[in-house]
Write a structure and sequence with these properties.
By secondary structure, this protein is α/β, with parallel strands linked by helices. It has helices at 3-10, 30-45, 59-68, 86-97, 106-124, 140-149; strands spanning 49-53, 75-80, 127-132, 162-165, 187-191. Helix 2 (30-45) crosses helix 3 (59-68) and helix 4 (86-97) packs parallel to helix 5 (106-124).
Length: 198
Amino acid sequence: MSIERLQAHYGFTRMPFGRNLAPGMLHRHAGHAEAVARISWCVDQHAIGVITGEVGAGKTVAIRAATTALDPARHVIIYLPNPSVGVRGMLHHIVTALGRVPSFYTATLAPQAAEALAAEHAERGRTPVVVIDEAHLLDNAQMEAIRMLTNHDMDSGLAVRGTAGRATHPAASTATRCPGSTRSTHRGEVFVGGNEPI
């Protein structure tokens, strides 16, 4: 039986359960609600967090639900789908997403990204929320670059409000590593705190 015949038989105008469901149409099971609450807490508290789970557990769906609930007048979402672009590519993406022309040299691009994130909040009143998918692909230099983006105003504030990085299947690549850490065995989401004084 073809998809078209099934759609006609049941009167569907489009296939149900697609990836493009609005967050309000999602099933609100306890795990999803807890993940969304934790993501929202991380963004609200200017914290770094990680959400882990198996392939298909709904980590990205939870991030989509949490970020959709944020006020677009007060937050700007910067989504990096593939962190394998390295430190320069990650910083380039952040600067470009904030409407600036990225510096050519990494040494000037890093402070430009931090300044762009801080200016977004100070000048426009919008707090950047950086979402990094497939975070298991982040190397140590990228993890340090993310950490450095959180240093703002001598640690009295953070240049970015939320970073969500989703680590994927542990067998697909090297797992998320921090200096002195062991390999991650789960997929995960990473969140980094905000640029307002704590």
